[in-house]
């Protein structure tokens, strides 16, 4: 049980004392939004630009227009949610059963489709991303099936 100390195992309400360092690989630039009221349930179709920092440009090799991506971002929490809001109850779903941006950690996993790529400048135009302007870009991954890791090459 890596990351757990005897103290955290004895008191499950106390989070383990583990620290992480995340280094952004770029910044998200959201296209200007039109002031319209979205339907109650909708799939975001906004365009955004993912701007990668120069050291990460070689990582774009192999990407192509039309591919689906997981875009991992970090946003600034508002701090307006009470500490016990994560629990839910009385007919209110807990945070893990929602898509709210107010989460225990300010990390978002968003799916988007790559529509254009400028490899020299490190700019990826995507659609379907609903994220804040200036959000830190933490990672980009192909949105493949989880089953792709269960097979061996040549099988």
Structure, described:
Keywords: Methyltransferase, S-adenosyl-L-methionine, Transferase. It comes from Candidatus Geothrix odensensis. This is SAM-dependent methyltransferase. With 155 residues, the chain is mainly beta. The protein has a single domain (21-150), classed as Elongation Factor Tu (Ef-tu), domain 3 (Beta Barrel), CATH 2.40.30.70. The chain contains 1 helix and 6 strands. The longest helix has 5 residues, at 6-10. The two termini are 33 Å apart. The model has no long low-confidence stretch (mean pLDDT 78).
Overall structural class, as computed from helix and strand content, comes to mainly beta
Radius of gyration: 19 Å
Largest sheet: 6 strands, antiparallel, barrel
The CATH architecture can be named as: Beta Barrel
Classify the helix fraction into a percent range: under 10%
CATH superfamily: YaeB-like
Tell me what portion of residues adopts beta-strand conformation. 25-35%
Which regions contain 5 or more consecutive residues with pLDDT less than 50? Answer: none
3D shape = globular
- By DSSP, the count of extended strands is 6
Average pLDDT for all residues: 78
Could you name the CATH topology?
A: Elongation Factor Tu (Ef-tu), domain 3
Q: Note the total helix count.
A: 1
Can you tell me the CATH class?
Mainly Beta
| Overall structural domain count | 1
Q: In sequence order, what are the helices and strands, one letter per element?
A: HEEEEEE
What is the CA-CA span between the terminal residues?
A: 33 Å
- Spatial strand sequence of the major β-sheet: 1-2-5-4-3-6
GO molecular function: methyltransferase activity
Domain TsaA-like: 22-152
Protein name: SAM-dependent methyltransferase
GO biological process, one term: methylation
